[in-house]
C-alpha cells in the first residue's frame, strides 16, 4: 500500500491573486476553481495517471480568514531554467514578489523571496547552464 503526493495546499486571503502570481512564476495554468479555492498545475490530473506513477503535484490555494502566523515551515524552491538566477529574481520582483531576509546571511547561493501574501520561497542556482552543455 502506498500514497501519492498529489497537491500542495496553501492557505491564503486571495486565492485568485495568488494563483495568478504562481501561474506566471511556474508557467502553470488554472485547472480547477470553486468558491474560495483555485488549483493550478502543469497538467490536469486523472485518476489513472496518478495511480500509474508519481506525477508533478498541483498547487491548491484555499481562502482562509486568518493571516499567516510566523515563518513558513514549508516553502518552495525554484531553479531557473531559461536564464541566470539574478535575471529570474528580477522577473519575480516584476511579478510582485519581494526579497525577504529570514536570517540567511550574505553570500548564499540562493535568494529568499516572498509571494504577494508573504509566503517565503527560494530561488536557487540556475539550471540554464547545465542544459546548454
Automatic annotation (TrEMBL):
Residues 4-126 form the VOC domain. It comes from the Bacteria. CDD domains: VOC (cd06587). PROSITE patterns: VOC. Gene3D superfamilies: 2,3-Dihydroxybiphenyl 1,2-Dioxygenase, domain 1. InterPro entries: Glyas_Bleomycin-R_OHBP_Dase, Glyoxalase_6, VOC_core. PANTHER family: CONSERVED PROTEIN (PTHR35908:SF1), HYPOTHETICAL FUSION PROTEIN (PTHR35908). This is VOC domain-containing protein. It comes from Nonomuraea gerenzanensis. The lineage of its organism: Bacteria, Bacillati, Actinomycetota, Actinomycetes, Streptosporangiales.
Amino acid at each position: 500500500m502506498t500514497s501519492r503526493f498529489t497537491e500542495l495546499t496553501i492557505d491564503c486571503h486571495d486565492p485568485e491573486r495568488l494563483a495568478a502570481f504562481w501561474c506566471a512564476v511556474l508557467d502553470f495554468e488554472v485547472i480547477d476553481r470553486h468558491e474560495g479555492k483555485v488549483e493550478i498545475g502543469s497538467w490536469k490530473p486523472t485518476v489513472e495517471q496518478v495511480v500509474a506513477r508519481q506525477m508533478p503535484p498541483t498547487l491548491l490555494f484555499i481562502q482562509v480568514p486568518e493571516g499567516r502566523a510566523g515563518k513558513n515551515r514549508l516553502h518552495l524552491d525554484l531553479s531557473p531554467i531559461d536564464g541566470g538566477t539574478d535575471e529570474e529574481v528580477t522577473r519575480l520582483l516584476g511579478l510582485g514578489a519581494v526579497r525577504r531576509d529570514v536570517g540567511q546571511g550574505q553570500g548564499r547561493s540562493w535568494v529568499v523571496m516572498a509571494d504577494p501574501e508573504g509566503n517565503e520561497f527560494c530561488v536557487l542556482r540556475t539550471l540554464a547552464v547545465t542544459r546548454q552543455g
